[in-house]
Write a structure and sequence with these properties.
By secondary structure, the protein is an alpha+beta fold. The chain folds into 3 domains: 199 residues, Aldehyde Oxidoreductase, domain 4 (2-Layer Sandwich); 162 residues, Aldehyde Oxidoreductase, domain 4 (2-Layer Sandwich); 344 residues, Aldehyde Oxidoreductase, domain 4 (2-Layer Sandwich), CATH 3.30.365. It contains 17 helices and 34 strands. The N terminus is likely disordered.
């Protein structure tokens, strides 16, 4: 079936609607992503009647609605927001909606490659809602159309004269028919020749309304089960001791003391596979202790007598890498990549009235997820089943398939609520470890990483050094901007072309690109053996701190209000085409900036006893600004107020968005205040929360005031880490106002105390 709708949704042969009759006459509707066959469906959808049906929504004869959330929820609220989109389009009664976390959706493809039957399944990457927006509305619109058609036949009234409300079809004369009573008839109707048009925004009843997280009650009452909580009776518990050097090796081992511990069954060795990219194989050589209980496994690990042999990385340390980066930026050598070059920076420099220069330092960062890496895996002859906290079950499936040879359609992956991701669970080294151990032991394995292993064997966010030069013309306008960044790419070794390795470190469109006539951005590559990978808000987090702190320094040099400097830089509201696609709407950016300024009483910035700081940013069609007020009493720094404004277009769940903004703000402040990973002799020095301390409640504000810009019909943009980039520079700018201490190096508290 192929059809077009008025809003541009296209149903092709490879992506078409599927309507299926479920148990007890239930109506099951979904968007299919394959040409043939039926995708798997969790048993929860059909009660005791097990069938493989593909769907996003199921309505039973009693009017209960079950909706599947396809993307893993890492705390971003997508398990609520995605079902809300479909439920609103369906005109379902939200009080009768239940949500199930969908596991991996895969089937055999005719071309030998797997077909992903739920479409893309990826969480915590900030794009779940934009990616699902059209699909879910389409599925909901079809289900509502079928229900309405069935009601029209029963009531003898034209379908276009009926309206749907809270799971009920209502006729003009007041007669009502419940969805539950119609599903049997609706499931037998032919598909429409043209996809039903989604509802106009003025008819939304759920979208834009505050709805609590569907998992909140289970979480706060301790009933929520994460992957780490799952058990299997036959499974052996596996704990690991990794080599402290990723390129080291095992020099000697005595397993006898470990095997003597009651309950210890096996001691096995793991090695990274050659020619496999990071995240697809074991992160470092390791020794695993497999036992009948967690306690026995840990006791056995403590009894192991191990000696590790360092590799070439033993000569590496983070302080030396920073010195190398600084020297590289101070040299006249050509950059690895010239990311952007607008106008003529050298010519602009010749006519400078004022020159400003500063260097900013960003540390290595760990992910520090609340739920350490873990994986429960069972491998039989021709099938495998896993329970795993992953941000991408499809990538996890690829790892399992490669290591076992099992066909993807025979790999079942369950993904419960995930205890934090931040990009760490886009890599699946821990899945590879669990699979290899289960194969070697020929038994199910429950792999558990300790907190120490989690800290010392991460795929870290690279440290970076940013050196920025700017020239101001005689009219006090920013005429030239030359930014150079040195770092070890997080994409190294991941199959990314050499001329794109910069893209994890800088953005060609980051502010103030497009606003300065002469703008240059250069990236200098560094080498490091430390594992590196995706991290929350990368690359915006590091770059916003440098750029927005530097704009504040420009304002100081000009002896003017930093707000005035930013507004002059943004100019009149207009749309600027971005090199990476999309546009920058300076009017929307000005708006969020003005909103936080007004809320925090920015007019008093110069005469306030406390310090006020401000910063703004844009990413992927969304806009954010922070204003922060800090105090200084007896050399003790305090964060008094934080205001954040966001513009994400269409807002699905304001309550969820507010939670994401507040959570990302506090995460960013905690990161900026305290966190850094350091290495010495090639070894990570931080092993626990004491060495990598999250901010205490006393360090953070009592609340984050959130301003959500009302949507104006634009499609939704992602927001899970939108509030990360601007918190740190707004904080640093505020600290400068209250103390006259300019912090250019993170973590802030350590540097503030050093400079004070």
């Amino acid at each position: 079936m192929s059809a077009n709708t008025s809003n541009g949704i296209r149903l092709s042969r490879r992506r078409f609607l599927q309507v299926l009759a479920g148990a007890a006459g239930a109506l099951v509707v979904g968007v299919r992503f394959a040409e043939a066959g039926e995708p798997p469906l969790p048993p929860e959808w059909l009660g005791n009647d097990f069938h493989d049906l593909g769907a996003y929504v199921r309505i039973d004869s009693e009017g209960n609605v079950l909706i599947g959330a396809r993307d893993p929820d890492t705390g971003t609220g997508v398990a609520t927001a995605l079902p809300m989109i479909l439920a609103d389009e369906l005109d379902a009664d939200w009080n009768r909606v239940s949500v199930v976390h969908l596991g991996l959706g895969v089937e055999a493809g005719n071309d030998g490659h797997p077909r992903w039957t739920y479409g893309r399944q990826r969480g915590g990457t900030g794009d779940s809602i934009p990616a699902a927006w059209a699909d879910l509305r389409l599925a909901g619109a079809l289900a509502r159309w079928l229900i309405t058609q069935a009601a029209a036949r029963r009531l003898g009234i034209a379908a276009d004269r009926l309206r749907c409300e809270a799971g009920t079809v209502i006729a003009p004369d007041g007669r009502r028919v419940t969805y539950g009573s119609l599903v049997d008839d609706a499931s037998k109707l032919d598909l429409p020749t043209q996809a039903p048009a989604p509802k106009p925004p003025q008819r939304y009843t759920l979208i834009g309304k505050p709805v609590g997280d569907v998992d909140a009650h289970a979480i706060v009452t301790g009933q929520a089960k994460y992957a780490i909580d799952h058990h299997e009776a036959e499974a052996l518990v596996a704990v690991l001791s990794h080599c402290p050097w990723p390129d080291g090796s095992l020099a000697s081992i005595d397993t006898a003391p470990a095997l003597a511990v009651k309950g210890v069954v096996k001691v096995l060795q793991l090695k990274p596979e050659a020619n496999q990219p990071p995240g697809h194989t074991v992160i470092a050589p390791a020794v695993a202790v497999l036992a009948e209980s967690t306690w026995a496994a840990l006791q056995g690990r403590d009894k192991l007598k191990l000696e590790w042999k360092p590799g070439p990385s033993a000569a590496e340390n983070s302080a030396a890498l920073e010195q190398q980066a600084t020297a590289l930026l101070d040299s006249q050598s050509a950059p690895t990549t010239r990311v952007r070059d607008d106008g003529d920076v050298e010519k602009a420099s010749k006519y400078a009235a004022i020159r400003v220069e500063a260097t900013y330092y960003q540390p290595w960062l760990a992910h520090a997820c609340a739920e350490p890496m873990n994986c429960l895996v069972r491998i039989d002859k021709d099938k495998a089943s896993l329970v795993v906290p992953t941000q991408s079950p499809q990538q996890a499936c690829a790892v399992v398939q490669r290591l076992t040879g099992i066909a993807p359609e025979n790999i079942a992956i369950r993904v419960p609520r995930v205890g934090g991701g931040y990009g760490r669970r886009l890599d699946h080294d821990y899945v590879a470890e669990a699979v290899l151990l289960a194969k070697a032991a020929n038994k199910p394995v429950r792999l558990l990483w300790t907190r120490g292993e989690d800290f010392t064997h991460d795929y870290y966010r690279p440290a970076s050094v940013h050196k920025i030069n700017a020239v101001i013309d005689r009219k006090r306008n920013l005429a030239g901007w030359n930014q150079r960044v040195a770092s070890a790419s997080a994409l190294a070794g991941r199959g990314v072309p050499a001329d794109r390795l910069w893209s994890s470190e800088v953005s060609a469109d980051q502010l103030p690109a497009g606003l300065v006539p002469n703008f240059r951005s250069d990236w200098y590559a560094q080498q490091s053996a430390l594992p590196r990978g995706p991290h929350r808000a990368m690359p915006h987090l590091a770059n916003a701190f440098a750029a927005e702190s530097f704009i504040d320094e420009i304002a100081h040099q000009l002896r003017e209000d930093p707000m005035k400097t930013r507004l002059r830089l943004l100019g009149e509201p207009r749309s600027i085409t971005l090199q990476g696609g999309g546009t920058l709407d300076t009017g929307r950016l000005r708006n969020v900036l003005q909103l936080v300024a007004d809320r925090i009483d920015w007019k008093d910035w110069l005469h306030s006893v406390n310090g006020l700081g401000i910063a703004c940013w844009h990413m992927d069609g969304a806009y954010v600004a922070h204003a922060i007020e800090t105090s200084l009493q007896n050399d003790k720094l305090g964060i008094e107020r934080v205001v954040c404004a966001v513009d994400v277009g269409r807002v699905i769940n304001p309550l969820g968005l507010e939670g994401q903004v507040a959570g990302a703000t506090l995460d960013a402040l905690s990161t900026a205040l305290n966190l850094a990973i350091t290495t010495r002799d090639g070894k990570v020095q931080q092993h626990d929360w004491k060495a990598y301390p999250l901010a205490s409640m006393a360090q953070l504000p009592n609340s984050v005031e959130t301003i959500i810009v009302p949507d104006d019909g634009r499609p939704p943009a992602g927001a899970s880490f939108l509030a990360m980039p601007t918190a740190a520079p707004a904080l640093a700018n505020s600290v400068f106002r209250v103390s006259a201490v300019r912090v250019r190096r993170l973590p802030l508290m350590r540097e503030f105390l050093r400079l004070s």
